[in-house]
Specification:
Chain lengths: 486, 96, 487
């Protein structure tokens, strides 16, 4: 029997406002417990919510970026349930009339084809606080600093058919919200969270299977693992004659499995109704136009432009635009390198792409640094690449120079100068080295001359070694050939 | 419209209200009476009527500028809490 | 000076400015009376003598320097539903019996800034749910006109305090008649402004789309004076209307010639005995003499006000009162076994039976499978009722009718039958559903118990209502009567 996986994602993205969605308390992360929970966040008797304009603007911005309909009129509703991290006993959210509907997002499949994932809706809501389960005399501690932080909940259509597709979609949304500067995307701190609705059905079957909602997915890796686990679980269950129960399941990263949540809201009944403390949110065309003006070039647009202008491979363009900061960095490098001739431009763009995706990303990953805080700034990297272009150093030496720039913060020229890494292009000097090498390896020379052509590489290596890698490789090749031939 | 004691107990659970059997019995009676009164609403044809959530038509939500106005007043706000520790509100252990 | 309590707020304001007495003297006079009479009436839950005397001294200093405003130095009592910074705020509930609010409600702030002296916090039906002030955790309030009778509710403490002249005026709130009905039952002038005219910030919510703060006092003139300071835009309340507040006192004396008064046909037909109707009809005759024209109008959906209200209000209340969970403030049960036990017992023990009844009613009408049949339907009928009012105001300037179907009833008479109790609000609820301003003014007596005339206006017509009430009070004496024991 063959099975098809069906996945829909619900993404919660905390909006990067200064203050809460309905109160003037700060949203900054990491403050001492309950020091950023004011009367409104605490749900004190008598207090009332007033909507943060910036949160609305950010939600609209997202809507425009995913080509969605921005509702002219949306309504806040109360979702009623009791939980210690929910101070009012209800969450202010949007139910029947969300602010954003009918959006879409393209993902690139493994075979290079493009698939469009539907975005059902994105609505504004307030975040809850946190329950800390360390032991306080057998109690849980409640910190309400996070309560009232604005969120958009982005709900996809059940359009994804594999964990890979789900991850691709999630990463695109993750990239997008950071491009839009509406969310910092920090999954560890919980500012970007995801729940996955997973079901399976027999291939060819039209009706969806019963789905389970998986929560607590706070890294891309976990999400992929959790989906794999859950799909296997459901298939096994059905194949052994069981039935999937619609339920909420929690992913346990330590055990690598999902388990049914001891439902905090057994027989859940949220009793949604329009929040009488808030009026309908009416968004004018002018408001939308104003937000549209703040839209940056979006990742897909940017990638298309890189492909078009620089003839970059689509893969490179995708990687380089995966964050706005990386794309910005990359573009600064290429701008510094821009040669006039179209051929130079394309060559430089590819050179820069290789370096940004290669050595630079490697160093950033190794040291756990964001590209925005890179120890080698874009202009400095361009300075290094320029030295490759003008043959001052070889590509190999450049890697060494880069490492020094990374650790010392010096410019490429300073490092080259200080370490005497300047390439040797004087043919006399190179010939001298070749003579030394030939003299030192008479046996190899004899073998070579008797027809062992493969030894050519040995001589190149020896010359480079003796010249400490500084000899111009092209010249070394040319002169060696001549000299070895006798 | 008549509610049983069982109905009342279910509602009381949803509303998180403890209740004695005697209370549940009394509420079954009084809530049934209230829903008897409310049943008058069924006589009206509302098929073409828009629901009304706010008494003033045409008013729309005002938007606040994104400015932090609150300062830390935890100490004052927690004076009304019965059980706190290290700035946290304590509740019997939450099991997920 | 021993008769200071017999004066209206307007007269007291004039006396203060003329330096006939000081605010401290005036405040002490009222505090002495509170001490003497509160025991038998139970109008106050908290008496804030120290705060009052401090505020009075500050007011006297202001008056002496010629800086005071219209309200500077005048004492007043706040319904205990308004949060008062550093002062016990109970909302008439065991749930909040130890709750010291950490902030002032906007109404409290505005009156404080206007120089008002706070005498204390008045008793009320628990969370404003009641029409007799018998659901208070702090005990029933007695009607100063007859101590065996209820003062009405939910602003029963405010009503009794002013009626017994142990406060010259008081704030109230009105969700389904909670200012007007007690005003009628204790012979006061009470006004519930248009929804959104007075900020709800700091007013502990019962039903958010219906609640509105207002005043209870001795004359329309006094009401104009207080409402002036209380009204107006507040950025902390999203439902508060950003519109200028007219000068209510300036138009009090406009002649009523040509005024079109709509008589609510349904009110006179529904649950009103001829004896009860008589004082109201007499008042209408006075208006005719003042040049007004009486026109009978029909609001066909108005009889559905009570059932509509008893879906909408409990629905909102069930959600509004979820915040009382024993965690951050309010009553917390002893040694909870687990989280569920904490919730259920804190709420089960902290709320009184009527509050629980309404929470359950509201929980039920919002629950899965019942929302459309109850809540949504009620919201639609709410629109029909509102449209009925709007149509009526195309023909007439104000609507008039009784405030309450009967005068004050015996304490204990209706406590066991919630539906009978709910029907007390049959005439007042319509204005809340439609968000209209409405008043009750004294218009006579039946069996030595006060009867109120209700005046309902179009949105934001408070100035007109106060004018209409004031002209009647210029022509009659009912509002000047004082219960003999408290004269």
């Amino acid at each position: 029997m063959s099975w098809e996986t069906v996945i829909g994602l619900e993404i919660h993205a905390q909006l990067l406002t200064k203050s809460k969605i309905f109160s003037g308390a700060s949203t900054a992360f990491g403050a001492a417990p309950n020091t950023q929970a004011n009367l409104v966040d605490l749900g004190y008797p008598g207090v009332l919510p007033v909507l943060n304009k910036q949160a609305v603007q950010m939600a609209v911005k997202f809507g425009l970026a995913v080509d969605a309909t921005v509702a002219k009129r949306s309504v806040f509703a109360r979702k009623n349930y009791f939980y210690p991290d929910l101070p009012k006993g209800y969450q202010i959210s949007q139910y029947e009339l969300p602010i954003v509907e009918h959006g879409k997002m393209d993902i690139i499949l493994e075979d290079g084809n493009i698939k469009t994932i539907g975005i059902t809706r994105a609505h504004l809501e307030e975040d809850a606080g946190k329950s800390l389960h360390e032991d306080f005399q057998g109690h849980s501690g409640i910190d309400l600093n996070r309560a009232g932080t604005p969120l958009i909940e982005i709900v996809s259509e059940p359009d994804m058919r594999s964990a890979k597709e789900a991850i691709a979609y999630l990463k695109k949304i993750h990239t997008l919200v950071r491009y839009l500067e509406i969310c910092d995307g920090n999954m560890q701190e919980g500012s970007f969270r995801c729940d996955a609705n997973v079901s399976v059905r027999q291939t060819g079957q039209e009706k969806f299977g019963t789905r389970c909602e998986i929560k607590n997915l706070n890294s891309f890796r976990f999400i992929e693992k959790a989906i794999h686990y859950e799909v296997a679980r459901q298939i096994e269950l059905i194949e052994s004659g069981g039935k999937v129960k619609q339920e909420t399941r929690l992913y346990d990263p330590d055990k690598g499995e999902t388990r049914a949540l001891r439902s905090k809201e057994e027989a859940n009944d949220y009793r949604y109704f329009p929040d009488p403390d808030l009026l309908p949110v009416v968004i004018s065309d002018d408001f939308i136009a104003g937000v549209r003006k703040t839209l940056p070039e979006l990742p897909d647009e940017k990638a298309a432009r890189l492909v078009h202008d620089y003839e970059l491979p689509a893969y490179d363009a995708g990687v380089l635009t995966s964050s706005r900061e990386m794309a910005d960095y990359y573009e600064v490098v290429t701008k510094h390198l821009s040669g006039d001739a179209p051929r130079d431009k394309v060559r430089n763009a590819k050179l820069a792409a290789n370096w940004v995706m290669g050595d630079l990303s490697g160093a950033l990953n190794r040291d756990g640094i964001d590209i925005a805080n890179s120890k080698v700034k874009a202009a400095a990297l361009a300075g290094l690449l320029a030295r490759i272009n003008d043959e001052t150093i070889s590509g190999k030496i450049a890697k060494e120079v880069f490492e020094s720039m990374w650790s010392d913060g010096k410019s490429a020229d300073e490092v080259i100068e200080a370490k005497g890494l300047k390439q040797i292009t004087d043919s006399g000097a190179i010939e001298k080295v070749i003579d030394e090498v030939m003299a030192a390896n008479p046996a190899q020379l004899a073998d070579y001359r008797s027809g062992k052509d493969k030894l050519f590489g040995f001589f190149v290596g020896q010359v480079m070694k003796v010249s400490a890698g500084k000899a111009n490789p092209a010249q070394v090749n040319e002169l060696l050939k001549k000299k070895l031939a006798g | 419209m008549s509610l049983s004691r069982n109905d009342v107990e279910n509602i009381a659970h949803l509303a998180r209200l403890s209740m004695t059997e005697a209370e549940a019995t009394e509420y079954a009676t009084s809530l049934s009476k209230i829903f008897g009164l409310v049943a008058q609403l069924n006589a009206v044809d509302v098929s073409k009527v828009e629901p009304m959530a706010h008494p003033l038509a045409g008013q729309v939500q005002r938007l606040r500028e994104d400015i932090v106005t609150a300062t830390d007043e935890r100490e004052k706000y927690q004076q009304n809490a019965v059980k706190i520790e290290a700035g946290l509100y304590l509740v019997p252990k939450v099991i997920e | 000076m021993s008769e200071l309590h017999t004066y209206t707020l307007t007269q007291l304001a004039a006396g203060l400015r003329a330096k006939k007495f000081s605010s401290v003297e005036l405040t002490k006079h009222f505090l002495t009376r509170v001490e003497k009479f509160n025991g038998e009436i139970n109008a106050y839950i908290t008496i804030t003598a120290d705060v009052a005397l401090k505020q009075a001294a500050a007011a006297d200093a202001q008056l002496a320097s010629g800086k005071g405003g219209a309200l500077t130095g005048l004492p007043l009592a706040h319904k205990d539903i308004f949060c008062t910074d550093g002062v016990l705020t109970t909302c008439g509930s065991k749930m909040l019996s130890n709750f010291v609010a950490p902030y002032d409600a906007t109404v409290v702030t505005r009156l404080k800034e206007a120089g008002i002296v706070m005498l204390g916090k008045t008793n009320m039906d628990e969370f404003a749910m009641g029409s007799s002030n018998e659901t208070s955790y702090f005990g029933a309030v007695k009607n100063p006109w007859n101590l065996n009778k209820v003062p009405g509710g939910s602003s029963g403490g405010s009503a009794a305090a002013v009626a017994a002249r142990i406060a010259p005026a008081a704030t109230g709130t009105d969700t389904g008649g909670s200012i007007r009905q007690p005003a009628a039952l204790t012979s006061l002038t009470g006004i519930k402004p248009t929804y959104g005219r007075v900020s709800r910030y700091g007013m502990i919510a019962f039903a958010s789309s219906l609640d509105q703060g207002g005043v209870m006092c001795l004359s329309a003139e006094d009401a104009a004076l207080l409402l002036q300071s209380m009204s107006g835009f507040d950025e902390k309340d999203s439902t508060c209307i950003d519109a200028p507040v007219p000068d209510y006192s300036a138009t009090l004396n406009q002649p009523l010639k040509g005024l079109k008064i709509g008589l609510l046909k349904e009110f006179f037909e529904q649950g009103l005995s001829p004896e009860n109707a008589k004082p109201v009809r007499d008042a209408l005759a006075v208006y005719e003499k003042l040049g007004a024209q009486l026109i009978e109008v029909s609001l066909p959906n108005l009889p559905l006000s009570v059932p509509t209200y008893y879906v909408v209000a409990p629905a909102e209340c069930s959600s509004n009162l979820s915040r009382f969970d024993g965690v951050r403030f309010g009553y917390r049960c002893d040694s909870p076994r687990d989280l569920m036990d904490l919730y259920k017992r804190s709420r089960g023990e902290g709320f009184g039976s009527e509050v629980k009844r309404r929470i359950m009613t509201g929980t039920y009408v919002l629950s899965a499978g019942y929302y459309d049949a109850y809540y949504l339907r009620a919201q639609k009928i709410r629109r029909l009722i509102t449209d009925d009012f709007a149509n009526a105001f195309k023909q007439v300037d104000v609507l008039m009718g009784p405030t309450s179907p009967t005068p004050a009833f015996d304490i204990g008479a209706k406590v066991d039958d919630p539906v009978t109790m709910y029907l007390n609000d049959i005439y007042t609820i319509g204005a809340n559903l439609a968000g209209l301003p409405a008043m009750s003014i004294p218009c006579g007596f039946l069996d030595e118990l006060p009867v109120g005339l209700q005046i309902i206006g179009a949105h934001f017509s408070e100035a007109k209502l106060l004018n209409v009430a004031h002209m009647y009070q210029q022509a009659t004496e009912w509002h000047k009567r004082i219960p003999q024991r408290y004269a």
